Amino acid sequence: MSLMVLKACHYGDYVAGVAAGAYCGEGQVGNKSVTFYGFGGIKNTETLYAYGLAHFIHLRKMEEDEGFVQVLIVNNGVTNFLKKYVPKWLANGGLNSEGKVPDAYDAWLEVYTLILLSKILINRPAGHYNSIFKSVGKICEEKAKIAHSRGCFSENALVEQGEL
User: To the nearest 10°, the Cα dihedral for 158, 104, 111, 52?
Assistant: First the structure.
């Protein structure tokens, strides 16, 4: 089993329902620790987490990998999306209650599938957990500020992803 830590945040005000935001994570890929990020204009923090989880899945090639990953996050909404909304979307042919494809649907579906296959376990640490998220939180805030400075609050999309 390996461990991955993931943090997501917004920066600035919402404009037309979208704010500049970012995610940053750190986890084991092969024999090395990798820090990865993404940023853009996003409607909610849970969507940032979905993009971050999907990013890590692709780095690890988890569909083929035998390893199991425990993911630590500080947002309970992610679990809510995975338990409540994703099953509804699947039952509705990939559409939300408005008849539209949900934001980050492919990322949510990928994460949901790997949870069903017992490849990922998502946990929120109990008690005081700030030290666990300190380094990724700082990078996350820096990337969200970059997204804001680039005007990423005008559309709902990631504009950059990468590894540090």
Answer: 20
What is the C-alpha to C-alpha distance for residues 125 and 101, in angstroms, rounded to an integer?
Answer: 31
Residue 104 phi, psi dihedral angles, 5° rounding: 60, 30
What's the pLDDT score for residue 32? Answer: 87
Gap between the Cα atoms of 100 and 107, Å rounded = 16
What is the pLDDT of the chain when averaged over all its residues?
88
Q: Would you state the pLDDT for residue 90?
A: 96
Single-letter code of the amino acid located at 63: E
**CA separation for the pair 74, 133 (Å, rounded):** 9
The CA distance from 9 to 5, in Å, is 14
Residue 32 CA to residue 30 CA, distance in Å, equals 6
Residue position matching structure tokens 């979905």: 50
Per-residue pLDDT for 62 more than 70?
no
Place of tokens 């949510």: 108
The span from the CA of 86 to the CA of 107, in Å, is 11
Give the residue carrying structure tokens 């990020």. 37
Confidence of residue 67 (pLDDT cuts 50, 70, 90): confident
What is the reported pLDDT for 129? 63
